[in-house]
Amino acid sequence: MPRKRTYPQDNIIFSDDTSALLLQNRQEVMRCSVADTVALDKLLKLFFGFERPEIAGFRAAVEQFKANLPAVPDALRQMIDLQERGNPAFRAAAARFLAHAQEAINPALLEADVREMLIQHSTADLFGSVSEENVARIKRQNARRISVVIGKPTFRGS
Q: Which of 56, 92, 97, 155 is deepest in the core (most CB within 10 A)?
């Protein structure tokens, strides 16, 4: 038996020569005469302004991410402080990185400069994209960076 074709009903306008009907999320939102330009304008604004719930949820998550982001550099500074106080391998790796940065960038660089460069680089990755693929890539990169500093291997999966 052939499948009956139906129109999507998350955001659609049905019209004929006299009236227009707006459905959103399978519910009638508005019906008006096509001759009533004020009502038709409202119907069209509702149609073009519609946002699917999953898109609205994604946008809300992005806004929450942006609101939380200023706390990230402070949290990274605290994590670095903790590692500098109690992790000799971290201190050794940080000293090697400082020597490399002084050689490659500027001999006048200080430990504090390199620390801020690392923090800014890490937060710049977060600004890049919020897609699942990029989040997974950033996690893998950060895991590798951390493994180099603390001297432990990380999972090398996809």
A: 97
- Whether 15 contacts 1, CB under 8 Å: no
Query: How far is Cα 53 from Cα 55, in angstroms, rounded to an integer?
Result: 5
CA distances from 10 to 23, 25, 74, 91 (A): 7, 4, 43, 56
- What stretch of H or E contains 86? helix 71-86
Residue 89 C-beta-side C-alpha neighbours within 13 Å: 7
User: Where are the strands (E) in the chain, listed by range?
Assistant: 11-15, 19-24, 27-33
For 43, the token pair is 């119907």
The residues pairing with 153 across neighbouring beta strands, listed in sequence order, are: none
pLDDT in tens, the chain (158 residues): 455 677 888 899 999 999 999 999 999 999 999 999 999 999 999 999 998 888 788 778 878 877 877 777 788 888 888 888 999 998 898 898 889 888 888 888 888 888 887 777 766 655 555 555 655 665 666 666 655 555 555 444 44
| Burial annotation 127-139 (CB, 10 A radius, 16+ → b, else e) | eeeeeeeeeeeee
pTM over 0.85: no
